[in-house]
Design goal:
The chain is an alpha+beta fold. It has helices at about 10-15, 50, 70-85, 100-110, 120-125, 165-175; strands spanning about 35-40, 40-45, 55-60, 90-95, 115-120, 130, 135-140, 140-145, 150-155.
Length: about 180
């Protein structure tokens, strides 16, 4: 067996050379997608471009239904969903979870106040939100997408706490700007 070692500088250079996962940026066109979702425990067909016709969309990706952070984030969005609606925005949670879990999560943790939809690996890749390189699990990234399909705000942080306040501030800004 051949053994080799790397110097600290070489190891650091290799780590730096690895591409970092980065969410889509402000100004990018949000990729349209069609999938299954759930609202109040009922399944429905979802297409982003259809929802955008009504106004801005907060598309928030979360790793896994019924985990502590994702449950707390869903509760936080549910508490503020009326404020999002007043600002003209629709909140949609997105994860790699299957429809059965989404039905339960939409009823229990989203409290029937907003929809959650399933993202396949292609959607997770298109939005550049894979969690630690796992193509079937998203990280925690929130996008605000204007009615024209352009991303106006991105917040990517595994800590759920600022996602609601930051995205709400952006949709209020969009409403005040008449967008």
């Amino acid at each position: 067996m051949k053994m080799f070692s790397l110097s600290l500088a070489t190891a650091a250079a290799l780590l730096i050379a690895q591409p970092a996962q980065a969410a889509l940026g402000v100004g990018a066109q949000a990729p349209d997608f069609t999938t299954q979702g759930a609202l109040k425990g009922k399944a429905f067909s979802f297409q982003l471009s259809r929802i955008l016709k009504k106004g801005p969309v907060v598309l928030y990706f979360y790793p896994k239904a019924f985990t502590k952070g994702c449950t707390l984030e869903a509760h936080a969005f549910a508490e503020k969903v009326d404020d999002f609606r007043k600002a003209g925005a629709t909140v949609i949670g997105v994860s790699g979870d299957g429809l059965a879990d989404l039905k339960r999560f939409s009823l229990e943790e989203c409290r029937g106040k907003f929809a959650v939809v399933s993202a396949n690996p292609e959607v997770i890749a298109d939005y550049q939100v894979s969690f630690k390189g796992n193509p079937a699990v998203s990280d925690r990234t929130s996008y605000v997408i204007a009615k024209n399909g352009r991303i106006t705000y991105v917040h990517s942080d595994l800590n759920y706490q600022d996602h609601v306040a930051n995205t709400l501030a952006e949709v209020v800004r969009l409403k005040q700007a008449g967008k």
